[in-house]
Amino acid sequence: MGKNTIKKTFPVLNLHCAGCANNVERIIKNLPGIADASVNLAANTLSVSYEEHLITPGEMRAAVLAGGYDLIIEEDHKMERQEEEQQRHYQSLKRRVIVTWIFAIPMLLLSMVFMDMKYANEIMLLLSLPVLLFFGRSFYVNAWKQAKQGRSNMDTLVALSTSIAFIFSVFNTFFPQFWYDRGLEPHVYYEAATVIIAFVLTGKLMEERAKGNTSTAIKKLMGLQPKTARVLRDGVEVDIPIEQLQLKDRVVVRPGEQIPVDGNLISGDSYVDESMISGEPVPVEKKEGSCVLAGTINQKGSFVIEATKVGEETLLGRIIRMVQEAQGSKAPVQRIVDKITGVFVPVVLGLAILTFVIWLTVGGTGYLSHALLSAVSVLVIACPCALGLATPTALMVGIGKAADYHILVKDAVALEQMRRVNVVVLDKTGTLTEGHPTVTSILWNSTQEDHFKPVLLAAELKSEHPLAEAIVTALHEEGVTLSVPIEDFKSITGKGIEVIYQKERYWAGSHRLLKEYHSEVPKLMNEMKLKYEQDGNSITYFGREDELLAIITITDQIKPTSIEAVKELKRQGIEICMLTGDGERTASVVAERLGIQQYMADALPDDKEKYVQQLQAQGKMVAMVGDGINDSQALARADVSIAMGKGTDIAMDVAMVTLMTSDLMLLPKAFTLSKQTVRLIKQNLFWAFIYNLIGIPIAAGILYPINGLLLSPMLASAAMAFSSVSVVLNSLSLGRKKL
């Protein structure tokens, strides 16, 4: 993508089937400035990447409108507008279904029970006209729009089949003598045309209702966003719509209210329930200077925050956008399905014509009714919708369910890849451990420790490493507050830091740095160091030139869920490897406690990446789990990258999957969900393909020579409606399965 390429998602209106989705995709992709476009039939959305200086959303909408569809391009309330449009469409469809059946049922009685009644054909003609001209009008209008552009979709099949049946029936009603003169009975099929429309509309109604349930995760997330915010303007509290919030606005939050923006507390204090974002059930204390997140709930006190991120840029906004984009993305198998559905309708039209010709060739004009009925049944029973819905509905439910468990999946490819993972590489700090290192002891090798403590504090204050933060905290607790002026700060990746103070070089870091400075560890200190390492502690060394000044022992507790998560991953048949920058003794102790046989100590970022490459070279599918910052090289190299973190920007940007909570048990659940979702996609595709492979030949009359079975167009339409609904209902079953 070029630097001017932007990606947006627009709700699409008037999508009826997989053919419609393909048509909209084709229309958009043929426009200048479009890098990529993808339509999700289950979500009714268009995800498009485009060069903003070459094309505008308004021009895209104009092209889509010409094809008989529509886009919602307004940024404000677009999801609410789509929801309103879908609700309005659903209610309209419901009314059409009810009235259509009011006309269809009397026609069925006339055709099956009172067929010998006088003027029965004329009555059925009058009953069928309102259905075709009004309640089923959309099929013919849409089919005509598609035909004008040389395209076709499911509406084409319905319009053709019902038109043929109706026109043939009208001819037979007014010119029955034509057939009597040839010794044939002039049959009419008004009820077939009407019931086909009734069944198709009923199927679409059930499908729309079921599809609405696939987006419950997004609706829940959007429900976390308040509609209004209370801001301070010239010292006065004013309620404004959430869309009007701006950076630096001062927002007042009262007890029990949802926080509308990401920001920092500037006055007041309280406890905030962040479980909807982080998954952590314990309310978090917030004081002046604390950061708060949009969508979380203030529990007790009132406070004022200054907005640092608003709207879609808040963490909640980014999560919603990520889930939407993931649900709109396509799994590799969907690309194949798209190609099939793209030619599906023309192939079915060809098969219907072939069916008609074969019947007439074999049976002559005496089989004209059979030929017509079979051709109509082929047109009706063939349904690209079941194929088109098989993958996206399963993905929507799967990715939505993941979001409910605080697992953010970036795209469908990640969800599909995870099921094939057979090796998981885990970073130790922050993944297997709490990620909150604390200093347990500082063992000094000098009587001048009070002189060196301020130097150590000044050096570590400049470092961003988690261990540095632990050392700073420990020194502050000892009462060390005066940091001295240091020079030439240098961070050495994977080793530590160096500074200059009073023309002497001081350093702090791992044993790698200790070796570089050729520092000796006194015997007594070495014995203590060995004991610390055997307890699973990390060791940081502090020295001046070649003199070791202190050994700092740092502990980072193993998470309570880590041991259980490792066991569960093993039970799933997945190998576990641990990577850590700690020394061999510390690494072996931690690995033994966790039940991990394979580990790598003294691992630098390059070493971690090479380790992943070595596993891949053995033909293994590797998932790397890290914090998204220190492990970025290995994460980028892995087949599946998973970030542990409570929704940090880096974690969500780098990783294919983000576990929003600190609970490592989410990891095996993510793999289980991947397997369940892919299994569901395969089931859906299998039944969709089998339905058409079996249904079309039966509709064509392949069983007629064997047992005289000729499928009625009415039964064909019922089967077609059921196929789409069954695929969606099968996808929804995923939501009830345990992880």
How are strands sequenced across the largest beta sheet? 14-26-25-24-15-22-23
β-sheet strand percentage:
15-25%
What is the averaged pLDDT score? 85
First CA to last CA: what distance?
Answer: 37 Å
What is the overall silhouette? elongated
Major sheet = 7 strands, mixed
Question: Can you give a write-up of this model?
Answer:
- The protein is of the alpha+beta class and 739 residues long.
- Helix content is 52%, strand content 18%.
- It contains 28 helices and 26 strands.
- It has a 7-stranded mixed beta sheet, sandwiched between helices. A 6-stranded antiparallel beta sheet has the order 6-5-7-13-8-11, with no helix packed on it. Strands 16-21-20-19-18-17 form a 6-stranded antiparallel beta sheet.
- Helix 3 packs antiparallel against helix 4 (120-135) and helix 4 (120-135) packs antiparallel against helix 6.
Question: What's the topology here?
Answer:
Blueprint: E1 5-13, H1 18-29, E2 34-40, E3 45-51, H2 57-66, E4 70-71, H3 78-112, H4 120-135, H5 137-148, H6 154-174, H7 177-180, H8 190-214, H9 216-222, E5 228-233, E6 236-241, E7 250-253, E8 262-268, E9 270-273, H10 275-278, E10 284-286, E11 291-292, E12 297-298, E13 303-309, H11 315-328, H12 332-363, H13 368-381, H14 384-404, E14 407-409, H15 412-418, E15 423-427, H16 428-432, E16 438-444, H17 449-461, H18 466-477, E17 487-492, E18 496-501, E19 504-509, H19 511-516, H20 523-534, E20 538-544, E21 547-555, H21 562-571, E22 575-579, H22 584-594, E23 598-600, H23 605-617, E24 622-626, H24 632-637, E25 640-644, H25 649-654, E26 657-659, H26 666-700, H27 704-707, H28 713-732
Parallel strand pairs: 15-22, 15-24, 22-23, 24-25, 25-26
Antiparallel strand pairs: 1-3, 1-4, 2-3, 5-6, 5-7, 7-13, 8-11, 8-13, 9-10, 9-12, 14-26, 16-21, 17-18, 18-19, 19-20, 20-21
Helix pairs in contact: 1-12, 3-4, 3-8, 4-6, 4-8, 5-6, 6-8, 6-13, 8-28, 11-14, 12-13, 12-14, 13-26, 13-28, 14-26, 14-28, 15-26, 17-18, 26-28
